[in-house]
Amino acid sequence: MAYIQKKEAGTDEEIWYGYELDTEILDLVGNRHVYETNCDFDLDLCTFTQATTDDIDWTRRAGNTPSTDTGPENDHTIGTAAGFYIFTEASTIFNKVAALESELILASSGRLCADFWYHMWGADIGTLNIYAKTGTTLGQVLWTQSGALSRNWFEAQIDFIPTADFKFVFEGVTGASFKSDIALDDIYITTGACRDPICSCDFDLDLCTFTQATTDDIDWTRRAGNTPSTDTGPENDHTIGTAAGFYIFTEAST
């Protein structure tokens, strides 16, 4: 978000206006480039483009993918069939590469954080690679993940200091069967270091630094798998998406 002060027409009042940024701007303090782009794919590919030297394109889609037993059920942003994401369609296209490129990011942007959500579920999931491409050279692998995970969206962050102007490349490699759809959503790239959360707890061991209040009616209950009541509550936790992971819930029985 950028804020610009300007005078309201017909008055002497000066008002700050906020603007969402989807591309590169020049920082007026310090004379350096500040980069920011954010894409949830709900309208289009934003500032990203399909590579021309790969095998297949990333496909923009809402709801589940066409193939059974692979891909997400919904997007990450809003978690319903109304939201969009991009994925690699692996049906009859095995062991092929789909590459999505960011716009050119200047080295003068300094340290950058790339934050994104990915989905890799299916019996023959391939590999997701993130590169820093300079010129026509794909460059170093900044991040990679191979093989099937649970049917959840996972977040990843890349802290990167460029030494030359470059593009981020999100490369999905399909596996040996149609059950290898890889999906991406909510890519956010901005100048500055990636920030660790102030507090984080997956409840797999305990309540971490959280405590039960003493002035309420009931306690939160830590549990794995589904809740005791039918037709309510989650089937599994969010962290790993299986009955081995824990979460907390409010037990409403009686």
UniProtKB/TrEMBL annotation:
Signal peptide: none
UniProt cross-references to InterPro entries, sorted A to Z: ConA-like_dom_sf (IPR013320), MAM_dom (IPR000998), MAM_domain-containing (IPR051560)
Annotated ranges, domain MAM: 37-196, 199-254
Taxonomy, superkingdom: Eukaryota
Recorded GO CC terms: membrane
Pfam family name, one: MAM
Keywords: Repeat
Name the UniProt record assigns to this protein: MAM domain-containing protein
Source organism per UniProt: Strongylocentrotus purpuratus
